[in-house]
Amino acid sequence: MESEEFKVMREKALKQLFSGESLTGKDGVFGPLIKQFLETALSAEMSAHLSEAERSKGNKRNGKGQKTLKTLAGDISIDTPQDRLSTFTPSIVKKRETILAENLAPKIIGLYGLGMSFRDISEHIAEMYGVDVSHATLSEITERVIPQVQEWQCRPLEAVYPIVWLDAMHYKVREGGKTVSRAVYNVLAISAEGKKDLIGMYVSESEGARFWLQVLTDLKARGLQDILIACIDNLNGFAEAIQTMYPQVEIQSCIIHQIRNSLKYVASKDKKGFMQDLKTVYQAVSKHQAELNLNALEEKWGTRYALIIASWRKHWEKLTTYFAYDQAIRTLIYTTNTVEGFHRQVRKVTKTKGAFPNDMAILKLIYLATRNISKTWKKSLNNWAIMAQQLHIHFGDRMPLTL
Asked: How far apart are CA 117 and CA 112, in angstroms?
């Protein structure tokens, strides 16, 4: 049987609905409905708690307390039943809970993950739902993501990732009254099914091959037994660090990084001509042709730019790995553009933050951003079936076919 009070609220709700009025906010009917629902549910929970065994201990109802909850329908004050022995632990509205998480918390975390500041989130929630949420409360809600981040960082990995990109982003963090730099080490991979996955995210004070070795050690401990091709920038000692953990890996240093580093030392008047000749090297149809074109580049420019030519020769084997594959795989691996593209998407979210309060604040936001970005990673790469077969021919049983 419906109570008279409930009938009145139901009729009011229908009237507001058909008239186009808001059901939430100060005068909306959802507030009283939620209040009645919660108080009825809490009373039922108390009745279930006060079992015969509990009553035999002398426990019984002991009046009511009051609690104000923040919900989509605004601030709602509810009566909370109490028991004499204080052993009652409600589940629908937990002790010390001041926000109905099922309503507001996911929305707040979602807005935070889009890069909105606490101030913007607070204003948005107030405008949309008529609820005032303090910065302290917003901080408490976003802190709930931390266990998810930590669990995600430790999750088991697949045994083989055919292609892996390793690169770092850099941020500022407030520490001890000053602003310091942090490097966020990201490991983006293609699975045997051809799907992208961010398999690692780590923070350090600076970027270096030594810390990358720690990253790779962690990846191996989490189950990653083999990497076929690792795409990296030209950080000194980086390739050696990878090969320490994965001796059979093929290293591809980023061509674009090498070009940028080379052009730093070319005079402005020579850059156009030098680049035209350099393109014949890295855009050659084969490694053999690339070597011939590098010789020609040295004949023409070697006297003026000997150090640049020497750098290409020093890193030649790592720079030319991609020539062993057809165009689809070459395009995928000859630069770190794939992970840099991911970084550009992340920066759209993090660029408004300035300096972060701590390292976890960085990880928290990048994790939420990645969760949104990865929604587009559910499908395999175009032409992956063909690329996977080519990788299987090249690497044998090290490349599992899941077609």
From this structure: 7
